[in-house]
Design a protein that fits this description.
Length: 76
């Protein structure tokens, strides 16, 4: 599926495509590995993914923002 087609499907299903982030971006923003993200999801400690297409998932940016904001800050 082409990038523009994917963006159209994402927009239609879940709002603006800029509001959805794929796994690579979520990993970059959180600093978590793929396995840690999925382990936290199974425990209910991380936002669940949304289905973008039949073979693609992503996370809502607002959900990741809220999760990051709720995380305790490390002591300096």
């Amino acid at each position: 599926m082409s990038a523009s087609r994917t963006e159209t499907v994402v927009s239609r299903l879940h709002g603006d495509s800029a509001d959805t982030q794929r796994l690579a971006k979520v990993r970059e923003r959180t600093g978590l590995s793929r396995s840690t993200i999925y382990r936290l999801i199974s425990r209910g400690a991380f936002p669940g993914a949304v289905q973008l297409t039949t073979r693609a998932i992503g996370w809502r940016k607002v959900d990741i923002d809220a999760w990051l904001k709720a995380r305790p800050k490390a002591a300096r």
